[in-house]
Amino acid sequence: MEGDPALRLRVFDLNCWAIRYLSKRRQERVQLIGDMLRREGFDLVLLQEVWSERDYSDLKVKLGHCYPFSHYFRSGVIGSGLCVFSRFPILDTLLYQYSLNGYPYMLQHGDWFCGKSVGLHGGGGGHGCFALPFCQLHAEYCREKDAYLPHRLVQAWELAQFIRHTSKAADGVLLGGDLNMHPEDVGIRLLRGWTGLRDAFTEATRFEGCEDGCTLVPNNCFTVKSELLPFPLGIRIDYILYKAISSFTVKCEELKTTTGTAPGTDIPFSDHEAVMATLQIRRQGQAVGATLGTAELTLADVVTEARMEVGVGLRAAQRQRYSTGRMAVLALLLLLLQAAAALGALAGLAAGQPFPKLSFSLLAFLAIGVLLLATGLHLFHTIEVKMLQGTEEQMRMALRALQERL
Question: Which residues are in the Endonuclease/exonuclease/phosphatase domain (predicted)?
């Protein structure tokens, strides 16, 4: 009711950049993160890029008395990197792995191997039941020529659909994570417009931290400075988004980001700054009802823009599928020619100097390798084409439904 006391929920979100053997001073930073979380006593902690389950286990032992409920989400080859610590009971969990997540042959990026996903944990605390998804989307490695933009848009669309369908029975939604998108990017506009989520940074009554709420800043010693040259202040790609659904209201009282090094040390907690929000949750006298939260005309424009970008990715994937298919066919023809030559030699039909056996064998192994590689890539790009076609079709149907309501 109107007189019910408000719940103040303190939320901590951080991309930990804790990759075993690759991240600089990983163990030291994990310890610093654990000390800070134990000292601050947040209600909910959302961590990304905790790739080592040993690090999660160490944090769980360290934080057990402060955060009695925790969960690690497993997916992909090296894991999702997602884990949650909570003061409130975790009622249930669910993991959804995105249908597209980069390319397996882009080893220097590695997003494909980690199986990036969205994890959902339902929680309460006496003030309703909230759907609490958190996630990480595919990284942006080159803003001028972003080959992964179609994949990231597919992920943003799947994340929006995931939130809409899993939050129907909830009283509210709280999303946190490294979305790898700038606030004005089409992906974040699509996600917010389709779900009605509100940005804690723009809604906060008070803010303290990096200018413009940036979470990847040039003065961080772990940041690759060349990637931030067009952005002298840094970029904001880590978010806490929220909305109330039924008879509750959610208001962001305060938002903070970490700045500089961890207290008493010469290093920051991560290459990303952490985001900390204080949310006021209050029960109202009557249900407020769910809305899209964005004018449908604007949302239609956003869906159209996203669909066009997905279409660009679809045509690129179709070209890749054709190229790898042609390569596989050529390798197969080469193998058939070699087989015919070998049969001819066995039958005594070969004239003159026979083809050197070593060279013949090496050429055969090369053709087999090319055939296997090209076939695998052809199958991968075939799946990519189907996923992009499916998303484009979903966006077309959604756009038609929006236009019919205008």
Answer: 15-272
Higher pLDDT, 387 or 363: 387
pLDDT tens, position by position, 88-110: 988 889 999 999 999 999 888 88
Is the per-residue pLDDT at 201 higher than 70? yes
Q: Closest Cα partner for 153 from 116, 190, 112?
A: 190
Count the Cβ atoms, other than its own, within 10 Å of residue 356: 10
Q: Where are the beta strands (DSSP E) in 179-308?
A: 198-199, 206-208, 238-244, 248-257, 275-283
CA distance linking residue 200 with residue 373, whole number of Å: 46
The beta strands (E) that lie in 269-356 are given as: 275-283
Catalytic-residue membership of 272:
yes
Question: d(Cα 323, Cα 373) in Å, to the nearest integer?
Answer: 12
Q: How many CA atoms lie within 13 A of 307 on its CB side?
A: 16
In order, the DSSP letters of 13-26 are EEEEEE-TTTSTTH
**Looking at the DSSP assignment, which residues form a beta bridge with residue 73?**
82
What's the rounded Cα separation, in Å, for the pair 50 and 19?
7
Give the active site residue among 127, 272, 378, 381. Answer: 272
pTM, two decimals, is: 0.91
Do residues 117 and 96 touch, judged by C-beta distance below 8 A? yes
Q: What 3-state DSSP class applies to 154?
A: helix
- The end-to-end CA distance of the chain, in Å, is 36
Distance separating alpha carbons of residues 162 and 178, to the nearest angstrom: 17
For 193, the token pair is 């417009």
How do residues 33-91 score in pLDDT, each as one tens digit? Answer: 999 999 999 999 999 999 888 999 999 999 999 999 999 998 878 778 999 999 998 88
Distance CA(134)–CA(95), nearest Å, equals: 10
